[in-house]
Design brief:
The protein has 187 residues and is an alpha/beta fold. It has helices at 2-24, 29-35, 42-51, 83-93, 112-126, 160-171; strands spanning 61-67, 70-77, 100-103, 106-107, 142-147, 150-157, 178-181, 184-185.
């Protein structure tokens, strides 16, 4: 029995050494790929800079297009967040590799009537049981743009049903002249 115990201890020790050796050996190709930092494209960097703007909110919409080293900014910001237009250009211009920025962001005219519609649209759209989840996060994926009583829904929803519901409930707000549903289906 002593030899058998000694043999089992020896086998266990060898197995343990094999496991330990594998744990301390050079990482495999798949392990190296896991720890390899992701290379951000210029588009990723522009997106990141725009999403971190301090006054960018649900009633603003920022879009961009990258053409080589030139970035074209577009979209709308409320007059209360007009500083966002200049900040967007400044932040994007600071990205290494960006040589020029065309700033076509529109500052929406100040309007108490539009502000009232914005609040009503927010309450109506996001109080719907299927759409409340879109208010999560620092920058929600759905944006409500109001200009002179006309509403545009921008952003991304999970499915066609959510897009349809958002358009229907946005149309139910009193005082709105029209609703354009530009929501995209995404993850």
């Amino acid at each position: 029995m002593g030899n058998r115990a000694s043999l089992l201890k020896a086998v266990f020790a060898m197995a343990l050494m094999g496991i330990m050796g594998a744990a301390f050996s050079a990482p495999s190709a798949s392990a190296a790929a896991i720890h390899k930092p992701k290379v951000e494209t210029l588009s990723d960097q522009v997106h990141h800079q725009l999403m971190t703007l301090p006054w960018y909110g649900i009633f603003d919409n920022l879009e961009y297009q990258v053409n080589g080293s030139e970035v074209i900014l577009s979209g709308q910001v409320t007059s209360e967040h007009a500083v966002t237009k200049g900040d967007a250009a400044k932040y994007v211009k600071s990205i290494p590799g960006v040589t020029s920025v065309v700033n076509n962001i529109e500052v929406l005219p100040p309007s108490p009537f539009d502000n009232q519609i914005r609040r009503a649209e927010y309450r109506t759209v996001f109080s719907h049981a299927d759409l409340g989840r879109y208010t999560m996060g620092a920058i929600p994926p759905v944006h409500i743009i109001v200009k002179n009583g006309h509403v545009t829904l921008e952003g991304v929803v999970m499915n066609q049903m959510d897009k349809n519901i958002a358009g229907i409930v946005a149309n139910s707000v009193p005082g709105v002249f029209s609703v354009e549903n530009n929501l995209r289906i995404g993850s």
